[in-house]
Specification:
The protein is of the alpha/beta class. The protein contains nine helices and 27 strands. Strand 3 and strand 4 form a beta hairpin. Helix 1 packs parallel to helix 2, helix 1 packs parallel to helix 8 and helix 4 packs across helix 5. The longest helix is centred in the C-terminal third of the chain and has 19 residues. The model has no long low-confidence stretch (mean pLDDT 93).
Length: 421
C-alpha cells in the first residue's frame, strides 16, 4: 500500500476545502493535501453557472465556476499543496491515518498531523420525505437536474413541477425556463419560502412562476414516466387539508427539500454532532471535540452564501496548520453557545477563551421562522453582551454577528442567543 505523510489533509475539494488548503499553506503548513472524489476541484460550484457569487469575498459578481477558478488558481500557485482527484476516502482513524483509493495508485495510506473535513452536503431524496405514488422515471433532486443541464447537456423534462423552495429549486425554476421548459409551479410545505429573497424575486416572480406556500404533493402518477402529481394545501401541523387537492400535469418532478451535511466519516470517529445542524460541534477555530480534527463549510451547517463557506475554510486551515506545527497553545476554558427563543441554530457551538486572542468570534445563526422588527440578543448570566435590531429575519438567510473579544471576557460558562420582540 502506497503511504505518504502530510501536515494538513483536507477531505473535500469544494469551496471550503480550497480555502482551507490556501489558508493552511499560508499559515505555515509544510505539506498540504486535498482529497477530492470528483474529477475536478470546485465541488458544487462547477454546476452553478448562474452569477451572484463572490460579492463578499472578491467584491464582484462571479459565476460558480468563476468563483471556483479563483481558488483553484490560488491552490495551483502554492507548490506545497498536493491534490488527489478521483480519490475516495474509505476510512479515517483517530490517530489521523487516512485510507483512500483511486484508479491510479490503488489503496493509499496517508498520515496527517491535522485533518479538515470539508465534504459539503447532499440532497434529501424522495425516500426521505415519503411521497406516496408510483415510481416512474422523471423524479430528480434539483441538484442532480442542475448537473444534468449545466454539465452533461441533458434536459430532464419539458413540463416541470418543483417541490420545495430552497435556493437550488428556485434557481432551477429559472434555469429550466431559460431552456424552454414550462415550470408549472413551485410548491412549499412551509408558510414561507426557504430560499433567499433575491432568488424568489429573480427566479420565480420575474418568470411568472407560481409559488404555492403551505402546499405539498400527495402522490406521484405515471407508468414508466411521470404524468402528473396530486397536490394539496396543508394546515399549521403540515397535514393535508381535505378538499383542497388539485392535479398538475408534468413529465418531470424536481425535489428541493433540504440538504444534509455529509458526515459519515465524522460519525465513525465518534465526533460529537449537533442534532439541529446535522454537523459536528465546533469551536470558533473550527476544531471539533477531537483534537486535530477540524470541519468547515456545509459539512458543519448549510450556508446560503459561498463567501461564508470560504471564510470558514480559511479559519479551519489556519488553525489546522497551527495544530500541525504545535502552535495552538493553551485553548483555555470552554463556553457553550445555546440557541433559544426563536433562534434555531448557532455556530460555533463552543467558544474557547484562548488567552492572548484578540480576534472577535463570528457567530452564524438561523431563526426558526420569519420575523419582523425583532432584536437579536446575546446573553450570558443575565447580562446582555450584544444586541442587533433586525427589520426582517428569515430561516433561509444566515445572520452573522461578530462578538468582540472584550465581550467574551465577560462571559460565564455559557451564552444564549435569543430573539426579543
Amino acid at each position: 500500500m502506497h503511504e505518504e505523510i502530510f501536515d494538513v489533509v483536507i477531505i473535500g475539494g469544494g469551496p471550503a476545502g480550497l480555502a482551507a488548503a490556501v489558508s493552511a499553506s499560508d499559515n505555515g503548513a509544510a505539506r498540504v493535501l486535498v482529497i477530492e472524489r470528483d474529477r475536478e476541484l470546485g465541488g458544487i460550484l462547477q454546476q452553478c453557472i448562474h452569477n451572484g457569487f463572490g460579492l463578499h469575498r472578491f467584491k464582484e459578481e462571479l459565476t460558480g465556476p468563476g468563483y471556483a477558478l479563483r481558488y483553484i488558481k490560488m491552490v495551483e500557485a502554492r507548490s506545497n499543496i498536493t491534490v488527489m482527484l478521483d480519490t475516495m476516502v474509505l476510512a479515517v482513524a483517530a490517530d489521523k491515518t487516512i485510507v483512500a483509493v483511486n484508479s491510479r495508485d490503488g489503496m493509499i495510506k496517508i498520515t496527517a498531523k491535522a485533518v479538515i473535513f470539508t465534504m459539503g452536503c447532499r440532497e434529501r431524496t424522495r425516500g426521505a420525505i415519503r411521497i406516496p405514488g408510483s415510481r416512474p422515471a422523471g423524479v430528480f433532486t434539483a441538484g442532480a437536474a442542475q448537473r444534468m443541464v449545466n454539465m452533461e447537456g441533458y434536459l430532464p423534462g419539458k413540463k416541470v413541477v418543483i417541490l420545495g423552495s430552497g435556493d437550488i429549486g428556485l434557481i432551477m425554476a429559472r434555469r429550466m425556463s431559460l431552456e424552454g421548459t414550462r415550470v408549472e409551479a413551485v410548491l412549499e410545505i412551509m408558510a414561507y419560502s426557504n430560499g433567499l429573497t433575491r432568488n424568489v424575486v429573480q427566479c420565480l416572480e420575474d418568470y411568472n412562476i407560481p409559488l404555492y406556500l403551505s402546499h405539498t404533493i400527495l402522490a406521484v402518477h405515471g407508468n414508466g414516466r411521470v404524468t402528473g402529481v396530486t397536490c394539496a394545501k396543508v394546515d399549521a401541523a403540515m397535514r393535508p387539508i381535505a378538499g383542497t387537492e388539485f392535479y398538475l400535469e408534468c413529465d418531470c418532478l424536481l425535489l428541493s427539500v433540504g440538504l444534509i451535511p455529509e458526515n459519515e466519516l465524522s460519525r465513525e470517529l465518534g465526533i460529537e454532532m449537533d442534532g439541529r445542524t446535522s454537523g459536528p460541534v465546533v469551536d470558533q477555530l473550527r476544531q471539533t471535540g477531537l483534537p486535530g480534527f477540524f470541519a468547515a463549510g456545509n459539512v458543519v451547517h448549510v450556508h446560503d452564501l459561498v463567501d461564508f463557506v470560504s471564510e470558514e475554510g480559511e479559519i479551519a486551515g489556519k488553525y489546522a496548520a497551527w495544530h500541525a506545527n504545535g502552535k495552538m497553545g493553551d485553548c483555555g476554558c470552554l463556553i457553550t453557545v445555546k440557541a433559544a427563543n426563536g433562534v434555531r441554530t448557532a455556530v460555533p457551538q463552543v467558544i474557547r477563551a484562548v488567552s492572548g486572542n484578540t480576534e472577535p468570534v463570528r457567530l452564524y445563526m438561523r431563526v426558526e421562522k420569519p420575523e419582523k422588527n425583532v432584536t437579536l440578543a446575546i446573553l450570558s448570566d443575565g447580562q446582555v453582551l450584544l444586541e442587533r435590531k433586525l427589520r426582517v429575519a428569515k430561516p433561509g438567510e444566515m445572520i452573522v454577528v461578530d462578538l468582540p473579544v472584550e465581550n467574551i471576557k465577560k462571559i460565564g460558562d455559557d451564552i444564549t442567543v435569543v430573539l426579543k420582540h
